[in-house]
Amino acid sequence: MIFVNILYKVLHFDPWGTRMVVIAWTCVTIIIFIASAICVSIIQILPNGKKIVA
Q1: Each residue of 2-23: pLDDT tens digit?
Q2: What pTM value is reported for the model?
Q3: Which of 3, 4, 16, 21 is exposed most, by the fewest CB atoms within 10 A?
């Protein structure tokens, strides 16, 4: 939810305000998924990180 809040509140991005809603939602979904996967990978590298994520 961190990345969703960043998109909406910090960047003021609203997929419903675009003309291509389906493409906007698809791009937002992919970006959030990749950012979350990167964060999980970084947390797992940290000491005791696997206990936090798993």
Answers
A1: 888 887 888 787 777 778 888 8
A2: 0.70
A3: 16
